[in-house]
Specification:
Layout: E1 5-6, H1 9-19, E2 30-36, H2 55-63, E3 65-71, H3 77-86, H4 90-93, H5 113-119, E4 123-127, E5 147-150, H6 165-168, E6 175-177, E7 180-183, H7 188-192, H8 194-208, E8 214-219, H9 241-262, E9 269-275, H10 301-304, E10 305-311, E11 320-321
Parallel strand pairs: 1-3, 2-8, 2-9, 3-11, 4-5, 4-8
Antiparallel strand pairs: 3-10, 5-6, 6-7, 9-10
Length: about 325
């Protein structure tokens, strides 16, 4: 029987460092976490036969290890993300489900990964969907991240919600940068640029922190519905909007990986790619794929088993599968 691995990424990163005895492994590596939203286990080539090629994710897997038996602690957004940020299971934090606008989210008594790394002297950044609280004291910029941008909750919690527009239309969907609202009411054009904006901020952050240890957290809003991608990728896959979105995410992974290499940070950086939970299959061809039973919102493997790739030259074996 295959063993189940249910790990908080922060703890795993620590275990990787503790277990490494190689002389060429740095004492204070950079950490990059790319966290997708509702991606399916089989959405990328290293994990199955997919509709499109994903060369940048495939390259990341070739440079690291693909973990086929990786589990998240709960199959829904806020619970999974708060567990990642705090290193604590939802049963301890009491963060369950997907929090909406103005919800307090993760209690401040639980330190976040940003706060822990910041105290250790790291520069920290979170570019993307936060979803761990939407109060002044629980938003990303107040939880240990020096630089931030993105949405505070899911991109479907807005006036265009297909099932409950009146409920979500009570609050504008805001785009934040470093504690300030820069877009008061996100529209369709803004949504199309989210993946690109997050990626550009990430690459710029890497460029400006070449000489200091950093934690870079990139929690993409996609491929959570509603699906959007930039004009450059729209229609490019030939397989529909979902795969256009995944092409842009693959591009984003490539841009971040390339930036690390060009700035000679590759050997000194842990890179982790995974998803907060499984695909939201009730949205048909706007959802990813999984070979396992059920999907997002359930504790079957389709809900809590996520594809995961980790890269750390000199510590994690390249081109391997665990």
């Amino acid at each position: 029987m295959k063993s189940r691995v249910s790990i908080i990424l922060l703890l795993l990163s620590a275990l990787v460092l503790i277990s490494c005895s190689a002389e060429n492994v740095p004492d204070k590596p950079n950490v990059v976490i790319i966290f997708l939203d509702d991606s399916g286990w089989a959405d990328f080539e290293p994990f199955g036969e997919v509709a499109i090629a994903t060369p940048h994710v495939t390259q990341l897997a070739a440079e690291g290890t693909a973990f086929h038996n990786f589990y998240v602690p709960q199959a829904v957004c806020s619970a999974s993300r708060s567990a990642l940020m705090s290193g604590c299971y939802p049963g301890r934090t009491k963060v369950f489900g997907a929090h909406g606008p103005n919800d307090p989210g993760l209690d401040t008594t639980f330190a976040t990964m940003g706060e822990v790394f910041s105290r250790a002297g790291y520069a920290t950044a979170a570019f993307g969907k936060w979803h761990c609280g939407d109060q002044p004291e629980t938003r990303s910029y107040a939880r240990g991240f020096d630089e931030t941008c993105g949405l505070m909750y899911s991109n479907d919690m807005w006036k265009y919600h297909p099932e409950d527009p009146e409920r979500w239309g009570e609050w504008p969907l805001r785009y934040w940068e470093n504690g300030l609202v820069t877009i008061e009411d996100v529209d369709h054009t803004d949504q199309k640029n989210l993946t690109r904006w997050y990626t550009e901020h990430a690459v710029d952050f890497i460029d400006r922190h070449q000489d200091s240890a950093f934690l870079l957290y990139v929690p993409h809003s996609m491929p959570h519905v509603p699906l959007y991608c930039s004009d450059e990728f729209e229609g490019k896959s030939g397989k529909g909007l979902y795969w256009d979105v995944m092409l842009e995410i693959d591009w984003s992974v490539g841009e971040i990986n390339r930036a690390l290499k060009e700035r000679h940070l590759d050997d000194n950086t842990i890179v982790i790619l995974t998803s907060d939970n499984g695909p939201w299959i009730s949205y048909g061809n706007h959802a990813g794929t999984t070979p396992f039973r059920e999907a997002k919102g359930t504790t079957f493997d389709g809900g809590v088993r996520s594809a995961c790739i980790m890269k750390f030259p000199g510590a994690i074996k390249a081109g391997s599968v665990s």
